[in-house]
Amino acid sequence: NAGVTQTPKFQVLKTGQSMTLQCAQDMNHNSMYWYRQDPGMGLRLIYYSASEGTTDKGEVPNGYNVSRLNKREFSLRLESAAPSQTSVYFCASRIATGQQETQYFGPGTRLLVL
Amino acid sequence: GESVGLHLPTLSVQEGDNSIINCAYSNSASDYFIWYKQESGKGPQFIIDIRSNMDKRQGQRVTVLLNKTVKHLSLQIAATQPGDSAVYFCAENDGNQFYFGTGTSLTVIP
């Protein structure tokens, strides 16, 4: 049982390049989330998927797209990377929205956009 | 938006002492609260949670206290150990989204 896994661990991009961050969970959770973490700020929600087949914007969705490929996988895509997207990205999963249960986080992807 | 803040950005304690980390929240509708521990280079790790119908919950060496009157949450770590050195942050949930504090950096002095 690996929990939440993310790939890659590190990535350096040039401005304008695109990339997809991958996330998978093996806990049979319904809900999945993408956050970014910047120095001096709390985790900010980019997008979430309450259940397979649905996605919704969070607090900071601009410049990102997501795909809930199946129940296990939730990917985050940067179509045209900008230096402001330099951050640490965390994927999380949770049994379901509306439940008083915690989220479980992956190890993060550290992204540098030059 | 919601705000979840920590009173102290850094905290240094002697090994073996107890640690107390505080958090203020602003949304009266929040009914579920979590403390996370984040070590350098790693993802947040669940420590303990508490529901709004409780005032106190204990885990192994950790206790969370919830004061709904003043919208305050605290994490107490007993007999703090070097392995407890990390950033700790709280989160609140209003039934929809989670809102996270910025964190307190705890350093344990051997």
Q: Layout of helices and strands, plus pairs?
A:
The complex is a heterodimer of chains A (114) and B (110).
Chain A: E1 4-7, E2 10-13, E3 19-25, E4 31-37, E5 44-49, E6 56-57, E7 64-68, E8 74-78, E9 87-94, E10 104-105, E11 109-113
Parallel strand pairs in A: 2-11
Antiparallel strand pairs in A: 1-3, 3-8, 4-5, 4-9, 5-6, 7-8, 9-10, 9-11
Chain B: E1 4-5, E2 10-14, E3 19-25, E4 32-38, E5 45-51, E6 56-58, E7 62-67, E8 72-77, E9 86-93, E10 98-100, E11 104-109
Parallel strand pairs in B: 2-11
Antiparallel strand pairs in B: 1-3, 3-8, 4-5, 4-9, 6-7, 7-8, 9-10, 9-11
Describe the structure.
The complex is a heterodimer of chains A (114) and B (110). In chain A, the strands form two sheets. In chain A, strands 2, 4, 5, 6, 9, 10 and 11 form a seven-stranded mixed sheet that branches. By secondary structure, chain A is mainly β. Chain A is built from no helices and eleven strands. Chain A is globular and about 40 Å long. Chain B is mostly beta strands and 110 residues long. Chain B contains no helices and eleven strands. In chain B, the strands form two sheets. In chain B, strands 2, 4, 5, 9, 10 and 11 form a six-stranded mixed sheet that branches. Chain B has a five-stranded antiparallel sheet with strand order 1-3-8-7-6, with no helix packed on it. In chain B, a hairpin with a 4-residue loop joins strand 9 and strand 10. The radius of gyration of chain B is 13 Å and the shape is globular. The N and C termini of chain B lie far apart (40 Å). The interface between A and B is medium-sized, with 21 and 26 residues.
Low-confidence stretches of chain A: none
Radius of gyration of CA atoms of chain B, rounded to a whole number: 13 Å
Instruction: Give a quick account of the main beta sheet of chain A: strands, pairing sense, barrel closure.
Output: 7 strands, mixed
Number of helices, where a helix is a run of at least 4 consecutive DSSP H or I residues of chain B: 0
- Radius of gyration of chain A from the CA trace? 13 Å
| Helical residues, percent of chain A | under 10%
- How much of the sequence of chain A is in beta strands? over 45%
Work out the number of β strands of chain B.
Answer: 11
Main sheet: strands, sense, barrel of chain B? 6 strands, mixed
Structural class of chain A: mainly beta
Which geometry of chain A do the CA atoms define? globular
Structural class of chain B: mainly beta
Note poorly predicted spans of chain B.
Answer: none
Task: Name the chain pair with the biggest interface and residue counts per chain.
Answer: A-B, 21 and 26 residues
Mean pLDDT of chain A: 94
Strand content of chain B: over 45%
Shape of chain B: globular
